[in-house]
């Protein structure tokens, strides 16, 4: 049983595939999105490991500029902004809204916690119809530690006023699940692509194909009672 569901945002809630159009529009191959996003996470994790911090957009912009230069394209603010602004127009995965509605109706509090900017997803959540389900939209800029550092998850617990053992993180990223579990939360693995979960990480408490399946797991057999 949980009281609070913590949601990762990028890729977990949002479909990042349309960002490939932005990369292609500025002269980069569509597959460069994957290396760029992985590098942004890598550098954020690396800074957190040495007790330093930079925000997502700062790292993302610098790495995008590096990709452009490597491709022989002169970077400028307009080009970088054109690509990064695509985050504000991403669609939600189709299972997100119906799944979160059922979880919300079951009386479970729902928040988001992102390594990116909470403001960046505001329009996405409004268009996707899930804003009414979200109690808080949190970002790691406040604790100055990227997930999977335990300080990020504990910050979410402090904001919610809930014990970590009554919280669970849902994400498509095993590293996020592992970090949440080590911080005392439960881990809920959203496995849309049927990707094997790494054995080196702490195992998730629940594996669900999508948020509709997760809603069934969280609300079945009286495991959750509606808020009184």
UniProtKB/TrEMBL annotation:
Protein origin, superkingdom: Bacteria
Gene3D superfamilies to which the protein is assigned, alphabetical: HAD superfamily/HAD-like, Putative phosphatase, domain 2
Keywords in alphabetical order: Hydrolase
CDD domains hit by this protein: HAD_L2-DEX
InterPro entries linked: 2-HAD, HAD-like_sf, HAD_sf, PGP-like_dom2, S-2-haloacid_dehalogenase
Gene Ontology molecular function, alphabetical: hydrolase activity, acting on acid halide bonds, in C-halide compounds
Protein name: 2-haloacid dehalogenase
Organism placement in taxonomy: Bacteria, Bacillati, Actinomycetota, Actinomycetes, Propionibacteriales
């Amino acid at each position: 049983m949980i009281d609070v569901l913590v949601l990762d945002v990028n890729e977990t809630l949002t479909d990042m595939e349309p960002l490939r159009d932005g990369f292609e529009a500025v002269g980069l191959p569509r597959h460069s999105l994957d290396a760029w996003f992985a590098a942004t996470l890598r550098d954020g994790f690396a800074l957190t490991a040495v007790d330093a911090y930079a925000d997502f957009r700062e790292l993302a912009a610098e790495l995008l500029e590096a990709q452009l230069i490597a491709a022989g394209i002169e970077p400028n603010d307009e080009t970088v902004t054109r690509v990064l602004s695509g985050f504000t127009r991403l669609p939600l995965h189709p299972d997100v809204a119906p799944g979160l509605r059922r979880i919300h109706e079951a009386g479970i509090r729902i928040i988001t916690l992102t390594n990116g900017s909470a403001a960046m997803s505001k329009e996405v959540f409004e268009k996707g119809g899930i804003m009414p389900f979200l109690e808080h939209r949190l970002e790691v800029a406040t604790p100055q530690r990227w997930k999977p550092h335990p300080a990020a998850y504990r910050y979410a617990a402090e904001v919610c006023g809930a014990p970590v053992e009554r919280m669970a993180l849902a994400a498509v990223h095993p590293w996020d699940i592992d970090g949440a579990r080590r911080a005392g939360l439960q881990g809920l693995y959203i496995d849309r692509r049927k990707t094997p979960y790494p054995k080196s990480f702490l195992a998730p408490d629940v594996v669900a194909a999508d948020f509709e399946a997760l809603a069934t797991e969280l609300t079945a057999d009286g495991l959750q009672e509606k808020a009184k």
